[in-house]
Amino acid sequence: MKQFWKSMLKSPSGVIGLFILLLAISVAVFGPMLFPNSPWRMVQRPFLPPFTLSTVPLGTDALGRDVFAGMIFGARVSLLVGLVSTLVALVVGVPIGAMAGYFGGKVDDALMRFTEFFQTIPSFALAIVLVAILQPSIYSIVASIAVVSWPPVARLVRGEVLSLRTREYVQAAVVTGQSNSWIILREILPNALSPVIVLASLMVATAILLESSLAFLGLGDPNLISWGYMVGAGRTVIRQAWWITVFPGVAILISVLGLNLIGEGLNDALNPRLSREGR
Amino acid sequence: MPKRVLLGVLLACGLTASALQPVLAQEPKTGGVINAVIQPEPPGLMLAMIQNGPTQMVSGNIFEGLLRYSPKLEPLPELAESWSVSEDAKTYTFKLRKGVTWHDGKPFTAADVVFSIEMLKQTHARARNNLVQVDKVEAPDDDTVVFTLKQPFGPFLGIFEVGSMPMVPKHLYEGTDWKTNPYNNAPVGTGPFMFKEWQKGSFIRLVKNPNYYEKGKPYIDEIYWQIIPDAAARSVAYETGKVDVLPGGSVENFDVPRLSKLKDTCVTGAGWEFFSPLAWLWLNNRQGPLADKRVRQAIMYAIDRDFAKDVIWNGLGKVATGPSASTIKYYTSDVPKYPYDPAKAKALLKEAGYKGEKIRMLPLAYGETWQRWGEAVKQNLMDVGMNIETIATDVAGGNQKIGDWDYDIAFTYLYQYGDPALGVGRNYVSSAIAKGQVFNNVEGYSNPEIDKLFADGAVATPDSKRKEIYEKAQKILVEDVPVAWMLELQFPTIMRCKVKNLITTGIGVNDGFKDAWLDK
């Protein structure tokens, strides 16, 4: 573990990514405490440009709502959706991939055909349809993002498990009569985790983008402010008021970039094939 | 023998002259093509069966009614050139214009009128309602139609507008299955323009009727109704010159000031007098906290309607005072007032014992303006302590929920058609409560006194008596707040200044191309 942090902190992209993520998380957690006012509240005259009033540093939107407050509350929704939907996707994808890889044969065939069924549908289109059917709410959005993002996890885990399955230590465990679940959980999965962790960090980024795209199209939770919603609502007035779209847009860009950098850092730190000191 | 008062011709001559005076100063020029936006794409053009806003707008130039209406809602001759009323106000005799033909060349006669009315009674809900007092319709000769009423009906001369009672060709529809008649897709009317083609998702093309009975009209050769689904793209289409006319409601409100400032651009709020759209919130009177009158009054006090007018509607329109728009007959402003007063709203909520029960709100899925309005109203209500949850739906989903009474608050706007008996009463009388519909009495308000007032008002004579009845009804309704009235909406029409005379009647663009011309 120590080793991991050491190499993680050595990679510049990992450090920058971690910094951005920590910043975003602290904004999401503590920001609303510092700005107790609802971001939906109309506080100033509409279309106030940024940097004119210190109370609304980033200006106001079409209804006179504080863009800065919206960014802070939006961070909460974006990160929450990103993390939770990734977690759900992992909970679904890892067991399916592990079982397919471990048992092989008919089980593998059945599970992989099932996975491919989801992979053949363009993921964003599927997410839109799901949210539209279930009606937009934070739950339906998390669910639909999870539904479209678990198949790659399953495929990745299956591949890893397939290769680990033939290792001698696994076969030794089989010979000693360990149960299948014990072998999968204790012997195989821990060794297959590294690529999954890297993938997960990128999935959080994708999920944030997906949520933003859905909200941009008006399929966000109408009771929660999110960056995508702000961009979507400001899009039509972009010629009068660029700041309504630009600031949340930049927030999306930075947080997605940060997560990608973390993914890169994790890849460097966890990949045994890359030569490192002390290995 | 009742004395007949021949007022049609006199009235018409006087009115047309005065209404068109300033524009007649310039001699109309013939020729040219106008591109106008139609938003959204209409589901069909057979006006007798489909009455969506966009259908009325396109087909009002293909079909015609017996009468047209001035901006002050006075009747003008159209297919009927004159009319008279018997002294007991129960017999209306219309003299039809001679030499009118359908677009296929067949003559238009009184038999078409009688047939149209029979058909509309089955296909057109509002026409059916308007014709409830009609006992029989007869055609003594080819140029005369006589309506006999069961009892005097004050607003009777207000029901002949093209969208309310379009004339349908008997020879093409009689004895056919109306729903599958092929002429639904290529409508045949008597109007100044003929249907030519419809490229779905792209444009609807109308061409000049060369045999139109008013010699010289129409002046325009062709109309292209352009279908552009995205609001921003519609503004751009105007800016780049692809379209010349943006009818009311076709661009987002915040684009209106910018487009109005463009060179050679004229803007008018006129042309909606007949409809007088009034926006309000359906409040479900049946269940939950909103069953309490005090909670409904609190909602009226809690919402900053001036803010909505100034910010969301860019200063267009007017804050509503009650169930009637100020352009409707017998409107009175002498009713209880609900200024923006959050403190009073909180006090009323407390008095009513509201304890933060969840209240579901349905915004109207008609675009950005309505979404923003929903957000602003939600915030207003949350500020006084109401627990509002917005339900996101599309238009169809929202209609379904409203029709099933599965809502607490829902946005809407409805037309009022000039007379309280035609467009106001239907929203408050208990006989208009029916599951599955999104118009009429959706809120479930039921008050025998109001039922009686509206029943009496429709048939009372003379006018002063109707006025008295409707003013009383308005006072009771405003006190009870069955729905929360928001704004009298105004939908500005934006067009190039070279488009002349497009809006001269109370329904504006809907039948405006008859008189429109292009100053090249």
List keywords for this structure.
heterodimer, A: 279 residues, B: 520 residues, alpha+beta, five-stranded antiparallel sheet, 15 helices, 22 strands, 29% helix, globular
Protein model, in words:
The complex is a heterodimer of chains A (279) and B (520). Chain A has 279 residues and is an all-alpha fold. Chain A contains 10 helices and no strands. In chain A, α5 (123-134) packs across α6. In chain A, 45% of the residues are buried. With 520 residues, chain B is an alpha+beta fold. Helix content of chain B is 29%, strand content 19%. Chain B has 15 helices and 22 strands. In chain B, α11 links the parallel β16 (358-362) and β17 (387-390).
Distance between the termini of chain A: 13 Å
Mean pLDDT over the full residue set of chain B: 91
The helix content of chain B is 25-40%
The protein's oligomeric status is heterodimer
Strand order of the largest sheet of chain B: 15-19-14-18-16-17
Distance between the termini of chain B: 55 Å
Q: Which of globular, elongated, flat, extended, rod-shaped describes the shape of chain A?
A: elongated
User: Could you describe the largest sheet of chain B, including whether it forms a barrel?
Assistant: 6 strands, mixed
Beta-strand residue fraction of chain A: under 5%
Q: How large is the radius of gyration of chain A?
A: 22 Å
Beta percentage of chain B is 15-25%
Structural class of chain B: alpha+beta
Name the helix and strand elements of chain A from N-terminus to C-terminus, one letter apiece: HHHHHHHHHH
Radius of gyration of chain B, in angstroms, nearest whole number: 23 Å
Name the chain pair with the biggest interface and residue counts per chain. Answer: A-B, 24 and 27 residues
The major β-sheet of chain A equals:
none
Q: Could you estimate the helical fraction of the residues of chain A in percent? A: over 70%
Low-confidence stretches of chain A: none
Determine the number of helices of chain B (DSSP H or I, runs of at least 4 residues).
Answer: 15
